[in-house]
Design brief:
- The chain is built from 7 helices and 33 strands.
- The chain is mainly beta.
- The strands form 8 sheets. The chain has a 5-stranded antiparallel beta sheet with strand order 1-8-7-6-5. The protein has a 4-stranded antiparallel beta sheet with strand order 4-3-2-33.
- A hairpin with a 4-residue loop joins strand 6 (about 185-190) and strand 7.
- Helix 2 (about 30-40) crosses helix 5 (about 90-100) and helix 4 (about 65-75) crosses helix 5.
- Residues about 1-20 have low confidence and may be disordered.
- It binds heme D (DHE).
- Heme D binds near residues 79, 173, 174, 175 and 216.
- Heme D binds next to strand 9 and strand 33.
Length: about 500
């Protein structure tokens, strides 16, 4: 006891002494210079976000300064944020935290006027021919996003020969969305640009900057509406899916006027609505497609469902009646969209990356499986009782899990740690890891997507000089390597449009 008290006393003295020297040192540190040197490349010179999120008090509301210090020191396991403890002193980190919590003198307005002014229409969709410029199975095409040099590749899913490679906006994030039976694909960049590309004519149709710092976007399957979820400003932007004309900016606030970043928006096709989860208000919103027809004149009615906690990450079950949501504090909840309330607590050890969960039939019941970004474990949840029936230990926290209706295997990556070059293959019938691939030792292997018939699995080597590796999904033998520049994700038209249970939508 005595030892504990004296060591507490000494550590208090240590903290006090160090604290005062940190304060003294802080005065001599040029935080703005430090920010430009260490942070601006990812978070934007103006702190408004780029590859990384905006660093403003408005967006850091839920992060205590102490936690912010720890993020800068140790990095953030679920993101690309590196650790700075060996590059910056304690005082420098402290001054950076003060700097990012200082309000900007002026946050640029990004309302209807600015959005409208950014709108570019390259081609009126109705003026472009309906016949594709190439021949291929149009349902078995892939779009591959190549992050290293901000390009995308249209890939033939039968021959695995690239059809067309084209530039994209800086730092695309999230899955591109297909509409109109796969003719068009929509991209969202972290800095708010939404682009519509005509796959048949290999041309951009239109672009618009819908936010300053954007989270993701959803498109109704007929392509009529696009809803963009923003971190900054705290808004949803509704666009006409045909040429991206802006229809309405919806401020995201609760009934008391508190505003919130948007966690994500998804198109719930069976419900004919958009589902929106919020980051700073414990609510889920539902906005019906039919109410958007008059969005230009009147604000669409919003169905607000109260939740027990924030929904930082979530996924929807196959018929879109339930949301499985997790918050950064670690709580997981099941929200019933029909009943309009939280119906269960869930036992998930950490936060899954959005859209990482997949479902399949295991014995007599449907199960949901998800990796998480904190621990090396895949949780298998019985979707009838919502109990975790198995936790499969992996070699490290993972980002993405993927399968296909015709495949007996689920592939899960190990995105972080010394084994980040590993890809586990889980037998969906036994819930056991049956193989661990290391396609390129030392380089991250991640994000698998299947061909339309599920016979081939495509895996990314996440490197500037990376590759897409094609596997026979039954024998697990490698068939082909296609050089690619950090192919962050690949998206199969058929699997996305049919909402395959083995992938994200
Ligand atoms: Fe993602 C999807 C959020 C970090 C690559 N990621 C998504 C989606 C969201 C999201 C909301 C769903 C969008 C959609 O498809 O509609 N991502 C977050 C985060 O909150 C997190 C943890 C922190 C952040 O930086 O925002 C995060 N994500 C990353 C990365 O660091 C990754 C690996 C690299 C990158 O691009 O920044 C990354 N996220 C991806 C990819 C998808 C994605 C490749 C699409 C997966 C799919 O198959 O649909």
């Amino acid at each position: 006891m005595k030892t504990a008290i004296s060591s507490l006393f000494f550590s208090m003295i240590f903290v006090l002494c160090c604290g005062s020297s940190v304060v003294a040192e802080n005065k001599n540190i040029d935080a703005e210079f430090l920010y430009k040197k260490s942070c601006a490349e990812c978070h934007g010179t103006d702190r408004l976000g780029a590859m990384g999120p905006a660093l403003l008090p408005q967006n850091l509301k839920r992060l205590k300064k102490k936690a912010a210090i720890s993020v800068i020191e140790n990095g953030s396991p679920a993101t690309q944020m590196p650790a700075f403890h060996d590059k910056l002193s304690k005082a420098e980190i402290q001054s950076l935290v003060e700097y990012i919590y200082t309000p900007l003198k002026r946050i640029p307005e990004w309302g209807m006027e600015q959005i409208r002014a950014s709108h570019i229409v390259y081609h009126r969709p109705e003026q472009l021919p309906d016949k594709p410029l190439f021949s291929a199975d149009l349902q078995n095409l892939f779009i591959v996003v190549e992050l290293a040099d901000h390009h995308a590749t249209l890939l033939d899913g039968d021959t695995f020969i690239p059809i067309h490679r084209f530039p994209t906006r800086f730092a695309l994030h999230g899955g591109p969305k297909y509409s109109n039976n796969g003719r068009y694909v929509f991209f969202a960049s972290r800095d708010g640009w939404i682009s519509k590309f005509d796959i048949y004519n290999l041309k951009y149709v239109a672009e618009i900057r819908a936010g300053i710092n954007t989270r993701n976007m959803a498109v109704s399957s007929d392509g009529r509406y696009v809803v963009v979820a923003n971190y900054l400003p705290h808004t949803l932007t509704v666009l006409d899916g045909r040429d991206l004309t802006p229809l309405r900016v919806i401020p995201v606030t609760d009934n008391n006027g508190h505003s919130s970043r948007v966690s994500a928006v998804y198109a719930a096709e069976p419900r004919k609505s958009f589902i929106v989860a919020l980051k700073d208000i414990p609510e889920v919103w539902e906005i019906s497609y039919s109410t958007l027809a008059s969005a230009i004149k009147t604000p669409p009615p919003i169905r607000r469902i109260k939740t027990d906690d924030y929904l930082d990450d979530f996924f929807l079950n196959p018929d879109y009646s339930l949301i499985i949501g997790t918050s950064r504090s670690g709580s997981s909840q099941l929200v019933d969209l029909n009943l309009g309330k939280v119906v269960h607590k869930l036992d998930l050890p950490g936060m899954p990356h959005l859209g990482s969960g997949i479902t399949w039939q295991y014995r007599d019941r449907p199960v949901l499986a998800t990796p998480n970004m904190k621990e090396g474990v895949v949780s298998i949840i019985d979707m009838t009782t919502w109990k975790t029936i198995k936790r499969i230990d992996t070699l490290g926290p993972g980002f993405f899990m993927r399968s296909h209706e015709n495949s007996p295997y689920a592939w899960v990556d190990v995105f972080f740690g010394p084994d980040r070059d590993a890809m586990h293959i889980i037998d969906k019938r036994t819930l056991k890891i049956v193989k661990t691939l290391r396609p390129v030792p030392g380089k991250v292997s991640a994000h698998v997507e299947f061909t339309k018939d599920g016979s081939r699995a495509l895996l990314s080597i996440w490197d500037k000089e990376g590759a897409l590796i094609v596997y026979d999904s039954r024998t697990l033998k490698e068939l082909k390597r296609i050089p690619m520049r950090k192919p962050s994700g690949k998206y199969n038209v058929h699997n996305k449009l049919t909402r395959s249970s083995g992938t994200s939508h």
